[in-house]
């Protein structure tokens, strides 16, 4: 006896397909915040690594001259200025660094360096163009100062232009900021949601880590040099 077998449609019905799509969308909704959180942690880790690498060059500079690069170009290298980009270019002129890679920290105003630093014959004029430094730099310091003082910090807050205050973007590194100290250690602080300051506890009160009330400054106000913003 011949038995005719009917083809069975094994495909999804429209309803089943919509259910699958809804499940995928729900899973994506749960996963996205976790992915973003991990990305912010990775950005913090990159900034921390780069700051520690820069400390090696800054320390060598201090050993050569008795101070870190400063806005007055006290080392006489021909790279004075009023931005972190200007002053940190002294590290190229002294031969302490040859690459821009470690000057990067993710911020709203910075970009990945393009690797074009120029050369000795043009005084490395292409090094650290606008946006290629992501760190706040504190001027006029040396290893002879309080070893807990901040030397580099990120991520500065920007309202569209170059940063002009020691305030920090609470979104980029997941509500935190990082500081490289003179001794080469890195410390993270939570960014205050209202003031955008990084704060520490002094005499049971919360104070801005860059305020003179913070005893690491010995009542001497820090001299900030802000990085320049990237172009369009």
From TrEMBL:
One Pfam family in the UniProt entry: N_methyl
Keyword check for Membrane: yes
Entry keyword Membrane: yes
Transmembrane regions: 12-36
Domain of life according to the entry: Bacteria
Protein name stated in the entry: Type II secretion system protein
Alphabetized UniProt keyword annotations: Membrane, Transmembrane, Transmembrane helix
């Amino acid at each position: 006896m011949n038995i005719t077998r009917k083809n069975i449609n094994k495909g999804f019905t429209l309803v089943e397909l919509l259910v699958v799509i809804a499940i995928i969308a729900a899973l994506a909704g749960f996963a996205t915040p976790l992915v973003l959180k991990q990305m912010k942690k990775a950005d913090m880790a990159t900034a921390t690594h780069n700051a520690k690498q820069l400390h090696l060059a800054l320390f060598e500079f201090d050993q050569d001259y008795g101070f870190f690069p400063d806005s007055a170009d006290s080392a006489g290298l021909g790279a004075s200025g009023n931005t972190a980009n200007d002053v940190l270019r002294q590290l190229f002129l002294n031969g302490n660094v040859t690459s821009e890679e470690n000057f990067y920290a993710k911020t709203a105003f910075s970009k990945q360096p393009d690797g074009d630093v120029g050369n000795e014959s043009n005084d490395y004029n292409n090094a650290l163009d606008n946006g290629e430094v992501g760190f706040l730099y504190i001027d006029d310091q040396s290893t002879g100062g309080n070893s807990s003082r901040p030397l580099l910090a990120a991520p500065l807050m920007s309202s569209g232009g170059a940063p002009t205050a020691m305030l920090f973007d609470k979104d980029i590194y997941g509500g935190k900021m990082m500081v490289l100290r003179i001794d080469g250690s890195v410390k993270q602080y939570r960014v205050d949601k209202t003031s955008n300051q990084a704060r520490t506890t002094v005499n049971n009160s919360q104070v801005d880590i860059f305020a003179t009330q913070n005893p690491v400054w010995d009542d001497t106000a820090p001299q900030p040099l802000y990085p320049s913003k990237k172009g369009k």
